[in-house]
Structures are given as structure tokens and as C-alpha cells.
Amino acid sequence: QVQLVESGGGSVQAGGSLRLSCVASGYIYRTYCMGWFRQAPGKEREGVVARDSDGTIRYADSVKGRFTISQDNGKNTLYLEMNSLEPEDTAMYYCAAGLGGLMRKGVHRWSALDEYVYWGQGTQVTVSS
């Protein structure tokens, strides 16, 4: 089984930066597609970015140029670097793992919630104006 634990959330001013981390219980980054999702109050959970097992990366249009996904396989850790944060970025952020090769299914599959079988508990990001 896979266990994911997020950290790094907090409160920042608009324009600030934050780095989220997701530590996996196993060496999974060459097997799973790893994604970051977020959910704001009253909103549906949405995909932020995902990196497939082959290295393919997809970003939501709303975060392109501001957020960057990366990983340290040796530490079994996935990162989300968030820059130029906006109040609209305020949400609970979740790390998730799906089966590798997910992105081969189509351009929209990376952000489909039902493609991810493991989820972390989330870390809160609050951006004030």
C-alpha cells in the first residue's frame, strides 16, 4: 500500500511563495503518476499539476508559469513550488497517486479524480490579499 503525507502549507501574503512536500511510504515515483490537487470551500476538487511515471507533466492553466512540480526519488518526496500566490490559490492541497501511464489515456485524464487511488490528508494553503 501507499501512504502519502503532505506538509508545507501555511498562510502567506499575495505574491508570496510556498513549497509543499509529499512524502510517500514507498519508492513509487517510477511506477505511479503523482499529482497535486486542491479544494477550496464550496468548490470541487481540481487538479493542479501531475507528473506521470515517464516524466510527462501537465499543469492546470490557472497555475502555469507560477507552480512547479518536482521530485526527489531518493527521498521519496514530491514537491510543489508555488510562486506569485494569489488569494484564488487558497485551498486544501492534496497529494495523490495514480497508476503509471495515466496520461497516455488522454489529455484530460491526469486531472480526473477517479484515476487516483491514494490520497494524502491535505495541507492548507491560505493566501491573503
Model description:
Strands 2, 4, 5, 6, 9, 10 and 11 form a 7-stranded mixed β-sheet that branches. A 4-stranded antiparallel β-sheet has the order 1-3-8-7, with no helix packed on it. The protein is globular and about 40 Å long. The N and C termini lie far apart (40 Å). With 129 residues, the chain is mainly β. A hairpin with a 6-residue loop joins strand 4 and strand 5. The chain contains no helices and 11 strands.
Give the beta-strand count: 11
Assign an overall shape: globular
- Provide the gyration radius in Å: 14 Å
Distance between the termini: 40 Å
Mean pLDDT: 94
Q: Which strand-content bin applies to the residues? A: over 45%
Structural class based on helices, strands and sheet pairing: mainly beta
Order of helices and strands: EEEEEEEEEEE
Our count of helices gives 0
Low-confidence stretches: none
Sheet with the most strands, sense and barrel status: 7 strands, mixed
Approximately how much helix is present in the residues? under 10%
Give a short synopsis of this structure.
This protein starts with a strand and ends with a strand. The chain is globular and about 40 Å long. The chain has strands at 4-7, 10-13, 18-24, 32-39, 46-51, 57-59, 67-72, 77-82, 91-99, 116-119, 123-128.
Quick tags:
129 residues, mainly beta, seven-stranded mixed beta sheet, four-stranded antiparallel beta sheet, 11 strands, globular
